Amino acid sequence: MSNLPKRFLTIPEVVAKYCPSLIAWKKNSHPNIKTDGALDEPMKNWSGGFIEIDKMYVSTDSQRVKGIQANYLIDKLKQYGGFLHKKTIAEQIYCPKYDIDITVDAMHRAILAWLCDVKEIRRMIVDEHDINDTDEEMNTRECDYMISKNKEGNKLTNTDLERIQKKTNQMTPDQKEQDKLFSTLKISFKDFGCDEDEAILSYPDGAGNFKNLLTNPKSAYYVGEKKFKLYSPQLPSIFEKRVTQKDAMIINALDICDKEQTTQFLDYLDSEEFKDIKFESWTAGCVHQRGIETAVVRILIRFNEWYRDFEDENIMRVDQFDKYLSVLPVEANHVVDSCVVKGKSYDPELWEMGDAA
User: Is 54 within 8 Å of 11 (Cβ atoms)?
Assistant: First the structure.
């Protein structure tokens, strides 16, 4: 359909563009999963009708196409042994302008059907565009439905919501400021901020963390735009996976360090000892709502111990931890005192803070 807006894609097109690894999975054999049709029969006399999988259209503005997780979908197929009609109803909005039904819910279920070579699934028309609606009006209606459908169940992340609001020109003044700042810095949160294809740093979520990092002087881990520009070029070479908490941890550690400490800290980041530490451990069991502050204290302690093992002296000063310790519970102060002042070896169990963790 040549005049169809580019935001509309079929299920096979969505997979090819946003999760191509599933194409290879579909081509392979999976003995424990039924891939030649559904496990069950659809409800008899279903009044809503059916939609062919290859003719389903979704909007890349309202659907979480940038949040498709291949492993999650495959795990679901392993769990059930294939596709189940009884768990699937595609909710759609009829569009008379293009004579198509736009799927506003069940995109992921439709992908499961496609993977199992199910030809059609149940559908239900939940709304209808007017023949004279502009594309912007239709887009807004589709996105509003997606938000109302998912927000109460917390199925949409804040980043999903911000991306949808951007696509439909419904951002608040504060969101517009954030979007402009992130765009300038080439940071993307699923296209909130810079377009993902043009981004230097691309994150699945966590825009709030970076808002504090860049614009909130009251935050213990605030550094500001100027310092972020100075330190952020280091980030892509440190962690392969982009997570705002971990990257904010690195930015803050670099900001705390003086010139000599920075030289040694960069050596530490390139060391086998650092590389052997599990990625998840930096923020695992962190103090509630203080994940970044906890992570910064952890990495500076471990960096200090790495240096001390070679040089027999501390490289970090205790006062350099103060801005983070001021917002952390007393247990964090005990950890710094034990590891930095008293020179004991770092022990993750020191961070077990009961209900605070």
Answer: yes
Q: Mean pLDDT across the stretch 237-243?
A: 92
* pLDDT of 153: 44
Rounded distance, CA 280 to CA 282, Å? Answer: 6
The pLDDT of residue 211 is 94
Domain ranges of the chain: 8-156, 206-356
Q: Which of 68, 67, 93 is nearest to 145 (CA)?
A: 93
Strand order in the sheet with 100-105: 8-10, 57-59, 100-105, 90-95, 120-128, 50-52
**Three-state SS string across the chain, please?**
CCCCCCCEEEHHHHHHHHCCHHHHHHHCCCCCCCCCCCCCCCCCCCCCCEEEHHHCEEECCCCCHHHCCHHHHHHHHHHHCCCCHHHCCEEEEEECCCCEEEEEECHHHHHHHHHCCCCEEEEEEEEECCCCCCHHHHHHHHHHHHHHHHCCCCCCCHHHHHHHHHHCCCCCHHHHHHHHHHHHCCEEECCEECCHHHCCEEECCCHHHHHHHHHCCCCCCCCCHHHHHHHHHHHHHCCCCCCHHHHHHHHHHHHHCCHHHHHHHHHHHCCHHHHCCCHHHHCCCCCCCCHHHHHHHHHHHHHHHHHHHHHCCCCCCHHHHHHHHCCCCHHHHHHHHHHHHCCCCCCHHHHCCHHHC
Q: Is the pLDDT of residue 354 over 50?
A: no
Angle at the Cα of 293 (from 158 to 329), degrees rounded to 5?
Answer: 115
The reported pTM is 0.65
Pick the closest to residue 22 from 119, 157, 113, 84 (CA basis).
113
